[in-house]
Amino acid sequence: MRERKKHDHSIVVDKLCRTLPDEEHLCDLADLFKIFGDTTRMRILYSLFETELCVCAISELLGMTQSAISHQLRVLKDNHLVQSRREGKTIYYSLADEHVRTIIGQGYEHLTENEREEIIR
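-> structure tokens emitted (121 positions)
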């Protein structure tokens, strides 16, 4: 029988040990992605992808109560994924920054990649 050669991964492992984020940052990253794991929040984020909207517009668009939308907006705002601005008595919500837009856009692009490839063929 042939003897299997063992791979020496020590150089790669040593390098990764120095560059891997600490446990707290990885935990925070996992928590961030949990926020994206809710369909209602994703529907709200996707609604805000192109323009800012008030709670009543989001409520009408998604067919949900303003209370339910407000609750989810609070979660999104607390996690710095949306921002708000007041105009008179109306509060308008929008995506917090380009990072949020990029995460949503790339996630959607990843999901639809196979569909686009099939259309091209």
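The chain has a mean pLDDT of 91.
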